[in-house]
Amino acid sequence: MSAIRLLVLGAVRQHGRAHGYQVRNDLEYWGAHEWSNAKPGSIYHALKQMAKQGLLRAYETAPSTAGGPPRTEYEITERGTEEFFALLRASLTVYDQKTDVLSAAVGFIVDLPREEAVALLRQRVAGIERWRAGVLEYYTPADGPGSLGHIGEIMHMWIHSADAGAEWTRGLIERIERGAYTFAGEGEPFVGVLRPGEENPYATGTPHPGDAR
Question: Which of the four pLDDT bands, split at 50, 70 and 90, describes residue 120?
Answer without folding.
Answer: very high
